[in-house]
């Protein structure tokens, strides 16, 4: 079902969706609806009723599984409709293949984003551990005019600063964790297309 023309239409659809998703964080309805209808008409024109049925099943296969992810809050509605439109062009098997590759890529990218977000806190915690466990009597410690160990005071101040940084990071994270970790799904679709493309052509 994935003819050269259908694959070209798929690439055009994904390119337009990538641009809109990156720039405005949305995939417009007019884009997905236009390509959905065009896919149905194209396959009807070359294969009649059988082509229309195949395109309809492809759209259903692209739409329904991702609808569940949308309900669970994993992706946006535009992504669901995008795969429905793509399925109308490339059929059941191909759209499911692309979908699974996209989900895997999204998982990998999500883990990398999460790791990048956690690394600063981990580094600060290690610094706190070092400061609190180091010997207060080492050579850098002196006594100031007030009788206070200056080295200890400096370390205590550094610990308080580091702890405040972690608290601030966690406070911001609790308010914006979704916005920070959420990414445009098209970032995962692009590498997925590259992965499955050899099997499509």
Automatic annotation (TrEMBL):
Transmembrane residue ranges: 27-45, 57-77, 89-116, 181-200
Gene3D superfamilies linked to this entry = 1.20.120.1220
Q: Which Pfam families match?
A: Peptidase_A24
Q: Which GO terms describe its molecular function?
A: aspartic-type endopeptidase activity
- Record-annotated Prepilin type IV endopeptidase peptidase domain positions: 9-111
Q: What GO cellular component term, any one, is given?
A: plasma membrane
Its family remark reads: Belongs to the peptidase A24 family.
Query: Can you say what this protein is called?
Result: Prepilin peptidase
The answer to keyword Transmembrane applying to this record is yes
The Gene Ontology biological process annotation of the record reads: signal peptide processing
- InterPro entries reported in the protein's UniProt record: Prepilin_IV_endopep_pep (IPR000045), Prepilin_peptidase/N-MTase (IPR050882)
Q: Which key words are in the record?
A: Membrane, Transmembrane, Transmembrane helix
